[in-house]
Write a structure and sequence with these properties.
By secondary structure, the chain is an alpha+beta fold. Among the domains are: 2-49, no CATH class; 132-205, no CATH class. The chain is 18% helix and 37% strand. The protein has helices at residues 2-10, 22-25, 59-82, and strands at residues 11-16, 29-33, 47-49, 87-95, 98-106, 132-135, 139-143, 145-146, 149-150, 152-159, 163-164, 174-175, 180-186, 189-196, 202-205. The strands form five sheets. It has a six-stranded antiparallel sheet, with no helix packed on it. A three-stranded antiparallel sheet has the order 2-1-3. It has a two-stranded antiparallel ribbon with strand order 4-5. The termini are far apart. 11% of the residues are buried.
């Protein structure tokens, strides 16, 4: 108690009330020698006298700073633990009776596992029915075939002599030499097509 009385005799304590002063905004308690003018050390405005600050007044500030640092450190640790890490593979090689450790770091984000080809690395081209030209005697067919039969969504059948276009056609329409039929063929039969006649006319055929 004696020391506090001596401080009051030697110093006066006050707070600045000027809104534009940084010391006033910080609510800082200023210590002014008793023989000096009782004004703010920054703005020069008169101070309002107040009790001296208790010893250890910065304890709360220190605790707050420590708490903030702890929160930041915890967040950084959580981010590090949840983020994807590269995998490490350690191999041991014996040389001269000793062992040496070699660490190989694999980037799991850029590397993809490679599976060996079953055919020894040689890729086989997919089998695709090629467009062929087939002479049936009464007509020449151009298009893809399946099991030796006409099978194409865009086949062409050009007649060499008069012949029934499609045996399943109830109208039994007959094409003349030089005429052709284009359309969809399945399993050797015309599903739907267009009959191009020698006189320039066209007729749709749906058996």
């Amino acid at each position: 108690m004696a020391s506090n009385s001596n401080d009051r005799i030697r110093f006066r304590y006050g707070m600045c009330l000027n809104d534009g002063c940084s010391k006033a905004k910080a609510k800082e308690v200023q210590q002014i020698p008793a023989r000096k003018e009782f004004v703010c050390a920054e703005c020069g405005k008169a101070l309002r006298e107040c009790p001296p600050p208790p010893k250890g007044g910065n304890t709360k500030l220190i605790i707050a700073i420590v708490a903030i640092i702890a929160v930041l450190a915890g967040g950084a640790a959580l981010w590090y633990m949840t983020s994807e890490k590269p995998t490490q593979t350690t191999t041991h090689a014996g040389e001269g009776g000793g062992k040496s450790d070699t660490t190989i770091v694999a980037d799991t984000l850029t590397q993809k596992p490679q599976t060996p080809a079953k055919d020894g690395g040689k890729k086989k081209a997919p089998v695709v029915n090629q467009v062929v030209t087939k002479d049936f005697g009464y007509a020449v067919y151009k298009g893809r075939m399946k099991n030796g039969k006409m099978h194409d969504d865009n086949g062409v059948l050009t007649f060499k002599k008069a012949h029934i276009i499609e045996p399943r056609d109830i109208k039994q329409r007959t094409a003349q030499p030089g005429e052709r039929v284009t359309g969809i063929f399945e399993d050797g039969h015309l599903v739907t097509g267009t009959w191009h006649k020698n006189d320039g006319n066209k007729e749709s055929i749906i058996p």
